[in-house]
Design goal:
There is one protein chain. By secondary structure, this protein is mainly alpha-helical. 49% of the residues lie in helices and 10% in strands. The chain is built from 6 helices and 3 strands; from the N terminus they run E-E-E-H-H-H-H-H-H. It has a 3-stranded antiparallel β-sheet with strand order 1-2-3. Strand 2 and strand 3 form a beta hairpin. Helix 4 packs antiparallel against helix 5 and helix 5 packs across helix 6.
Length: 212
């Protein structure tokens, strides 16, 4: 599928008021104007064409980086995977319409492989599920991670959208975990003290020790 970068400016003819476009004499300077990208997307189900366009790049390098990013997203689906291509095209259309940042390629790959809706906002809990599903290593380590996610992470931050997770959310989580650990330690200490106190009680029927 075709894609390209191009540069244009918004200067106008002082006499007619019409945009100069490529005829602007200042375009000979690389610092004049801005760059845009356009990438053809997989066609809609009815065969109509669609594309991803974005403008306002300060440099050709930045424009080319985003064009490569878009192409990498399209490349996540096999050429014969009509459903996957359609999902990615819908995602890129939504991103273009909302002027949102391009989604992370690896995160999109995981969502696509797990059959998740690409146009919905990924939550921390969903991301943790995908991360855990793809984790390799010793079963004991995986089980420990699963327990930490289930007990600590999901209940406290699993409901947040991944793109809206902030340092403050993590700080609150760690403080809550620390408080819970203190409560557990205090509870364990209280139980040990209770057992020690019980051990000092002379039980009925026990033989009294004889004096030396």
């Amino acid at each position: 599928m075709k894609g390209s970068t191009h540069r244009r400016c918004y200067c106008r003819d002082p006499h007619t008021g019409k945009p100069l476009g490529k005829k602007c004499p200042k375009l000979s300077s690389r610092k004049h104007g801005s760059y845009s990208i356009r990438q053809e997307l997989p066609p809609r189900e009815d065969g109509t064409r669609r594309s991803f366009s974005r403008a306002g790049y300060d440099s050709l390098k930045a424009a080319q980086a985003d064009l490569d990013h878009v192409r990498a997203l399209i490349g996540l689906a096999d050429a014969d995977d009509a459903e996957g291509l359609a999902q990615i095209a819908e995602l890129l259309e939504k991103v273009a319409d909302e002027k949102a940042p391009l989604p992370n390629v690896e995160a999109t790959r995981r969502r696509l492989s797990h059959g998740l809706d690409l146009t919905s906002r990924l939550t921390v809990g969903e991301w943790l599920d995908m991360w855990l599903a793809g984790k390799k290593g010793r079963q004991s380590a995986i089980s420990r991670d699963e327990s930490n996610i289930r007990v600590h992470l999901k209940p406290r931050i699993g409901h947040y959208r991944l793109d809206r997770l902030r340092v403050a959310h993590l700080s609150e989580m760690f403080e809550a975990i620390a408080d819970a650990n203190v409560e557990i330690a205090e509870g364990n200490a209280a139980r040990r003290k209770a057992f020690e106190d019980l051990a000092q009680i002379p039980w009925k029927g026990a033989r009294a020790s004889r004096p030396p």
